[in-house]
Amino acid sequence: MVGRIGTDNAGRVPDGADLVLDGCDNFRTRLAVSDACVALGIPLTSAAVGRFQGQVGNFAGHLADQPCYRCWVGDAFDAEDCDTCAADGVLGAMVGMVGTFAAMQAIRIILDGHSALGDPQYGRIHLIDGLTPALRRIRVPRDPGCKACSEAA
């Protein structure tokens, strides 16, 4: 497929995939991809960079006890005017570091049940601070009111 991913076509893009690695440059697209992954039952590795900071997390909102990406960021970022990499800027070295970390997290999903590295760490966001440098981890709970993965959705 050639074109922009949006709410109207995001569900067709990952159909049949075992895993989606998302590095989209805006929240609206990220949420469309996440919602499609939940609907199709596909795990998601999400990686984002903004200036000197990055975040990487694995999500499985299609599983009853796991959050999706929308549980992490909420609904406010569905708007057209949210932050983008083009507007905020990114440091190339951060993109490389976050991308490499995201690849390792994706491998965790692929190896789940097959090796010691195979702990998908669903619902854990790894925040990478390139200025300090530092890494910290946050556990994201499933939002019972989430419009993508809750039972009410």
Q: Would you give an account of this structure?
A:
The protein is α+β, with helices and mostly antiparallel strands and 153 residues long. The chain has a single domain, classed as 3-Layer(aba) Sandwich (Rossmann fold). 27% of the residues lie in helices and 19% in strands. The chain contains four helices and five strands, in the order βαββαααββ. Strands 1-2-3-4-5 form a five-stranded mixed sheet, with helices on both faces. It is globular. The relative contact order is 0.19. The model has no long low-confidence stretch (mean pLDDT 88).
The CATH class, by name, is Alpha Beta
Element order: H for helix, E for strand:
EHEEHHHEE
Give the helix/strand class.
alpha+beta
The end-to-end distance, rounded to whole angstroms, is 28 Å
What is the helix content?
Answer: 25-40%
Counted up, domains total: 1
- Stated plainly, the CATH topology is called Rossmann fold
Tell me the number of helical segments per DSSP (H or I, 4 or more residues long): 4
Q: How many beta-strand elements?
A: 5
Q: Which residue ranges are poorly predicted, with pLDDT under 50 across at least 5 consecutive positions?
A: none
Strand arrangement across the biggest beta sheet: 1-2-3-4-5
Determine the mean pLDDT. Answer: 88
Morphology: globular
Q: Roughly how many Å is the radius of gyration?
A: 15 Å
CATH architecture designation = 3-Layer(aba) Sandwich
Strand content: 15-25%
- The CATH superfamily turns out to be NAD(P)-binding Rossmann-like Domain
The major beta sheet can be summarized as:
5 strands, mixed
